[in-house]
């Protein structure tokens, strides 16, 4: 994610409301302020593995630009990793996160509990983790006397799902001043028939079995009310924050029909959005012939940062 906009010093400070109880989300407990250590090799300050809960996955990493102490305030991007709800890590895109930080913004990458045969975690618990983590992020910055200005949520795949869900559902109560969202191949509509059918495929059989057990259903379609509750598209409003979207035409994980339905809803409500379709790519947006499209999305992110940050 190169060429992201270089943020200047910001003059407007936002008073953060910390330890706020969000509807449908858990609360944040008081904790020690983390120690920010300078990473000379990358030229950024880091506070790694900051806990926001008792589970080993309930942690996030903070990245701050080298000159953060001389700035009046910082804009922030919160990154949520993907991994089909059962895998993935906050550290998997660390190079990208460091590069973003070098451009003069704060970046936080968070983990959340994942679906596993040894737990009962599913969408509700994962989303609670995202809410609690964002509460804790606001608390940590406030307690560290680092003023935050504007914020954006960014995610890939399952992470994009939660970034959008939080951005649309929690906008009124979030302790961060959210101004836009970045969605890479996120399942915006979990009730999409083609998406629900994915767990019936052989390669997703184990995951599908866990999903059904958790939801106590024989067929995924029987759990549509649950999936609707956690579908970002359900919380879209004309005043929803702008969204940058990137989807793959040949996606075998998140069917392109999800993109079509989502784009139609954005359009019908008059929402501000940018959509880039990768016509030759699968879920990873990796087709060589689609490579120039990554620069388009990067340019859109730069433009949004200039406009909204």
Helix content percent band:
25-40%
Strand content: 15-25%
Give the uncertain stretches in residue-range form. Answer: 1-30
Give the number of helices: 8
- How many extended strands? 9
Name the CATH class.
Alpha Beta
Q: Order of strands across the widest beta sheet?
A: 1-2-3-5-4-6-7-8-9
Distance between the termini: 18 Å
Task: Write structural notes for this entry.
This protein is α/β, with parallel strands linked by helices. The chain has a single domain (37-308), classed as Rossmann fold. Helix content is 31%, strand content 19%. The chain contains eight helices and nine strands. The protein has helices spanning 94-102, 123-143, 158-169, 193-196, 205-215, 224-229, 256-269, 291-308, and strands at residues 37-39, 44-51, 59-65, 74-80, 106-110, 148-156, 177-184, 243-248, 273-278. The chain has a nine-stranded mixed beta sheet with strand order 1-2-3-5-4-6-7-8-9, sandwiched between helices. It starts with 36 loop residues before the first strand and ends with a helix. Residues 1-30 have low confidence and may be disordered.
């Amino acid at each position: 994610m190169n060429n992201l906009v270089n943020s200047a010093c910001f003059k407007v400070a936002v008073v953060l409301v910390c330890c706020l109880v969000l509807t449908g989300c858990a609360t944040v407990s008081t904790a020690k302020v983390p120690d920010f250590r300078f990473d000379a090799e990358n030229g950024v300050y880091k506070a790694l593995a900051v806990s926001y809960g008792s589970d080993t996955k309930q942690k996030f990493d903070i990245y701050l630009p080298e000159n953060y102490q001389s700035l009046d305030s910082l804009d922030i991007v919160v990154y949520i990793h993907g991994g089909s709800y059962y895998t993935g890590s906050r550290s998997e895109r660390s190079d990208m996160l460091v590069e973003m930080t070098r451009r003069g913004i704060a970046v936080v990458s968070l983990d959340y509990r994942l679906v596993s045969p040894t737990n009962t975690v599913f969408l509700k618990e994962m989303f609670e983790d995202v809410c609690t983590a964002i509460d804790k992020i606001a608390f940590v910055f406030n307690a560290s006397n680092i003023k935050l200005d504007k914020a954006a949520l960014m995610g890939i795949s399952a992470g994009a799902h939660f970034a959008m869900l939080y951005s649309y559902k929690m906008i009124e109560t979030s302790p961060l001043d959210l101004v836009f969202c970045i969605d890479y191949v996120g399942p915006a509509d979990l009730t999409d028939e083609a998406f629900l059918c994915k767990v019936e495929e052989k390669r997703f059989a184990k995951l599908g079995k866990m999903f059904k057990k958790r939801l106590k259903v024989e067929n995924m379609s029987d759990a549509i009310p649950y999936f609707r509750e956690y579908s970002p598209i359900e919380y879209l409003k004309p005043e929803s924050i702008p969204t940058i979207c990137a989807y793959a035409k040949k996606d075998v994980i998140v069917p392109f029909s999800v993109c079509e339905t989502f784009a139609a809803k954005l359009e019908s409500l008059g929402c501000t959005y940018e959509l880039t379709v990768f016509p030759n790519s699968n879920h990873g947006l990796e087709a060589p012939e689609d490579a120039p499209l990554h620069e388009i999305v990067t340019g859109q992110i730069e433009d949004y940062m200039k406009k909204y940050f």
